[in-house]
Structure formats: structure tokens, C-alpha cells
Amino acid sequence: MARSRNVWGIDIGKCGLKALRCSLSPQPGKLVAETFDYIEYPMLLTQPEADPTELIRDALEEFLRRNDVAGDTIAVSVPGQSGLSKFIKLPPVEASKIPDIVTYEARQQIPFPLEQVVWSWQRLEGGIEESGFVIDAEIALFAMKRDQVTKAIEPFKESDIEIDLLQLSPVSLANVVMFDQLPNASEIDPDAPPASIVLASMGVDTTDLVITNGLKIWQRTMPIGGNNFTRALVQGMRMTFAKAENLKRNAARADDPKKVFQTLRPVFNEFASELQRSLNYFTGQDRTAKIGQVLLVGNAAKLRGLSDFLAKQLQLEVHRLREFKSLEGDLVLKAPVFRENQLGFSTVYGLCLQGLGVSSIRTNLLPSDVTRDRLIQAKKPWAVAAMLGLLVAALINFFGIYIAWSSYSENLFADAFTQVDSVVGKSSQIQSSLEQVQAEQLEILDTQQRLARISDRRFQSLDLIRAIESMIPRDEPDKTDASLRDAIQAEKAEAAEEANGLPVIPVSINYDELHINSLDCQYFEDLSTWFEPLEEDWKRTVARDQFETNDAPEKTPATDTEGQSNAESEANTESESEADTELGEPSFEPEESEPEVPAGEGWVVQLVGHHFHNEDYHAPFEGRTYLRTTLIESLLGERGETVTVTAGPEAGKKVLPKEIGIGFPAIIESSPIENYWLSTAVDSVGDDGMGMGPSRGPTRGASGELLEEGLELKKYDFIIQFVWQPKTPGAVQIISSGETGDNY
């Protein structure tokens, strides 16, 4: 079969052999004419004294001497009257059953048993296919008797030319019209097809008539050809056939051109009438069809005045097809011989289109047994060589295995096995070492990345500490010291008054400060696991109305020195609540933008501390209430405290605590208010090593005088936890997972 991308189209006509070699152009929809050949016979094959077999054989031998066809695809045409062409419109049918229906139609349409013919079919463009059913489908059916096929390919077989494609001349001409003169079939609207083109190919004895609009095809062979004009000159002007043929070709240069045309006029009329009758029959079958133009091809169409006469008689546009729009190759197209005989190359051009796979009709009348025998014949040498190769390989393999089997002894390979085991052991040891090194490397890389992440967060940690420090209330040192001195002097005066039996006025200090004993933190992959058990504590912490009603700090019964009973404490509590109510401060509601529960990973920071802002005149702002109105409000961002950003896109800017990731503060532990003695004696040391401890009252002498300097305070202990999800304002934050801090 074909072994290259070139195709030879060969047409053995009645007056000569025409051949054209083409290939696909890099430009889509174009062909390149590589070379051509035109060999005219010494005489027409229809002349009585001519030997067609001898003339065709000589022409093929001359063709092979001039051209090399090895490896090229060979496409050959046969006259239209040698075969049968049928175009059948199918009823609505399933697509899978079309082959069976076509076989049935072939038996009905072909007037010979199918075993005696070579036939091929193809579904034409158009029709509608939906859900497996085909509507308005049309089938092209072509057939030739086997003896006609054998007769057509016999000259090529004698010349050792292997044919790949055998096609009827009218089908090749239809391919030329649809490819070269009409739009692509896929671009044609079936409801509004273009006007049909009539292609008349004038041969020696007949004229092949093809009518198509790109979707439908109609074909007929008219029994009028170039010989009819020649015989009219022989009879009308009393000359030999050879002279009449020469005069027909050169009628314009005759001695009396007018007489020549008058002699040919009856044939002109007969040809026009036959062509008109064919067109009427076609339009009668298809009422919607419109005839656009008539194109004449074939060397007989070169007869001077024929196209003008037909245009006048048919009232249609009639032209000779002197240009192939989709064919390139100036070396061929501008050759004088090709230009002189271009009208005769239409058929071979159509054969090249089909051989290159760009034609609309792709049927092939070459018998399948010829193709099969040729394929088998081409593969026989390779098959024999492959069988010999397999036999030699099998013998070599057998002897190799036999020699290896006969020479094997376990003792001969004992050392080799030992070495193999040693190598395997070393390999396993090396593999284990390699895996250990890789594990250590991964651990080092993980540590490196963790340290790098810790380094990246150093500024965030500093911002957190600065934020906590800025939110803790405190008095200025000078003020605190002065208050402490004043309180001690007042305490001495109180003792003196008590000794003298005077009324005692309680005196304390305005110690507006929180003391943080410790700060710890712990990492949580899911902060909701921390928040779930502490949710009630958080609600009580952030809900301000708890401090107005039910959340007054618990107080222990008053000491003997103060002389307060439980009832008095309850009264103080009630007065604190009333005082708080009278302040009229609005209750706190969490911001709508704040989520109900913390989500994702982050840290929980714990603050352990105490404060002494618990005197009676502070009520109701003491205990939890003081803690809530100072540190808690600062953590919630209600007091407006800000922290300066250390690093990042907004470095140096002051932001609220929540903008660095602080939120969800909760008082998780709150102790009752206890009395503490603050001793100012140099040698007095309390439980905490600083002269402070549980109150035991001031030390007095026998006469009631104070023996120890100091001050009795009321202390409130607390533990606060809040969420910290580190982030740098203005930057995308990533909290690395898998890292934990100190446990509580």
C-alpha cells in the first residue's frame, strides 16, 4: 500500500494518458501539484485500426520511464459508463441498521448478483441524526462488474503498478466541484443550500454530467462526445477522420471557419438539447434545486464557440473550468503542456483529492481480494524472516539454558553466595544508617523551622507583654508612697483615739493597683476545647449586669478590730449593689463582630494576681467588680488602651488589643476578700517575706499602745485566662501548629 504522502492520479482516456502527482499543502484546504504527465496516443482508441491494449501498454511504459511511482499512492479512474451510480434516499431508520438497508437496496438496484460485482457505498452529508435515528439520509451507491474491474486494472498489473484506489470518473469530477467550487459540506445550511453547479466532462464518445450543490449529487452520462463533432466534419466536408480531427481542433485557423461552424451547428444543437433535457429531468426530480452555472471540462470543450452557444441556448452562465482554486504549484500550473490540456486534468485532480483524504466521496471499487492478496504478498518475506528469527532465537535460548543447567553445581557458587549475602547485609546496614541520618536531618530541619517561627514571633510576644503591662492599672510611685505614709500616721492616730475612748474613723489608702504574680501560656490546636468548659465563666466575666446584681464580691466576716458582723457585710454588699446601680453605667454586651466561641489554633494566657482596692469606700468597685472595670475592660478594648506595634506593615502604629490577637478574657478563679496586715517594721516578716500576711491585728501593749507599725489591707486574689492568637496588624498571619508552651 502507500508508503509516502504523495498521490498519483492516472486517467487512461480514449485519446491519451493523463497523470498528476499531488501532496497536501501546509496551508489548510490546499493541494500542491508536484509534477504531471500527458501522453497522447498516436491515434484514438476508438478508431477501427487502433489496438487499445497495445496503445495503453506503450503509454504506461512511457509514463514509467519518465516518472518514479515507487512508494506513492496510485489512484486510477474508469469511465462513467463502465459502472453504476445510484443515489438513494433512505426512510427514517436507526443508524445501526443502515448497512443492512444498503445491502437490501444494492440487491434491488444492481441488475446483477452481488457476487458478480464490486460495489461500495457511502452516506452523504446532510440528514438529521437524533437519539440513534437518521432522518432524510441519502446514500451514494457505486458498482462495477468484476470483469470490467479486471479489464481496467489489467494494464497496470502488467506494468507492475500497484493500484490503491479505483474510482468512477464522474465521482472524481463531483469531488472536484465540492472541494474546489463549493463551500465545505459542514458549513452548508441544509435548509438554504447554494445553487447547484453543473459539470460537463466532454470525452471522445460520451459526456459525463455531474450536478451537485455540496449535499446532493446527480449524475448522468450523455451519448455525445468529441467524435460526434469529428464525424460531422467527415460527412459534411468529405475528408478523412484524421484531417477532420485536426480541423476540429484548429477550426479558428481553417480556410473557411464559417463553413466549419455551419457544419458543426447540428451537433451543437443536439448537444445543447441533450444537456437541456438532462437539466429538466434533474429539476423535475428536485423542485427546490436551482442551477447556478455550467462548467465545461475535457479537451473536446476547447471547441471554439461551444460555451457561448450553450449559454445562449440554456440561458445559463457557461464557462470552461480553466482554474483549480485549491491547487498550488507554479512549476506545474504554468507549464505550457499543462495549460494547453488543463481541461483534461479535472478527473486526475479529483483522484488526488480522494487519495489524500480530503474529498467528500471516498468509495473505492478496487476488489478487497486484490488488496488482501497484495498485503499478504508484501508481508510474506517479513513473515518468513520473522519465523526464521524466532526459530534461531529459540534454538539459542535452548542451548544456553541447557549449557547453564548442565554446568550448575552449588559448590561452585558457594563463595559467590557468601559474597552476595555479605553485600546484602552491608546494603541493609547502609540503608538503615541512611534512614537514620535522614530522620535526624528531618528532625534538625523541623527544629530549625520551629526556631525560625519562634524568631518571627519575638516581636509579637513583646507586643503581648507591652499590651498586658499597659492594661494593668497602677498608681504612680510617689503617690503610692505618700498614701502609705499618710495611712500609717492615720492608723497611729486611730489607735491613740481608741485608747482615749474617742470615736474611731476607719482610715485606709487609695491603693489603685493590680499585682500580677505570674504569667503563663499554653498552646491549643483547637481553642474550642479550652473554651467549652469555661464558657459560663467567660459569660459572667463579660456580662456587666452580673456585677450590678448577683456578682458582688464575697466578704469574710469582719475582724474583731473592726467589729463587723455578717449582717453588716450583707448590708455593705447591698449598698455596693445600690451604689453601682446609681452610677447608671450601661451593661456590656459582646461586640457583634466577635465570634461566639474562639476558633482555630492559638495560645491561652493565664494571669495570677491580686489587688487591694477593696476598702468599704471603694464599693461597689472592689473585688471582681474592680477587676472587671479595669483589666477585663482593657482586654475587651472598652477602655481604649492601645499598644504600639513593634514590627510589620503597621510598625509604630497604636492598635487595640484585639488587633494583636487578644480576646475572650475569663475570670476562672476568684477568692473571697481577705484581711492582710502590711507591717512597716524593719524586723517584721510576714508569710510572703515582705511584711504581709493574714491579719492578726496590730500588736498593742498593756496600756493599748501600738507596739508594731503597719497597716491592715483587704486583699482579693484572682486568676484570669484569655486567648491570644498572634498576628501582626496589616500582615497575613500564620500560627504554626504542633508547638506547645508551658502547662499551667
- CA-atom Rg in angstroms: 57 Å
Distance between the termini: 88 Å
Helix proportion range: 25-40%
Which descriptor suits the 3D outline? elongated
Structural class: alpha+beta
Total number of helices: 20
Task: Please explain how this structure is put together.
This protein has 744 residues and is α+β, with helices and mostly antiparallel strands. Among the domains are: 1-82 and 144-181 and 326-365, ATPase, nucleotide binding domain (Nucleotidyltransferase, domain 5), CATH 3.30.420.40; 367-408; 410-451; 457-724, no CATH class. It is built from 20 helices and 25 strands. The strands form six sheets. A six-stranded mixed beta sheet has the order 11-4-1-2-3-17. Strands 18, 19, 22, 23, 24 and 25 form a six-stranded antiparallel beta sheet that branches. Strand 2 and strand 3 (31-40) form a beta hairpin. The relative contact order is 0.08. The model is unreliable at 502-508, 546-594, 682-692 and 734-744 (pLDDT under 50).
What's the gist of this structure?
With 744 residues, the chain is of the alpha+beta class. It is built from 20 helices and 25 strands.
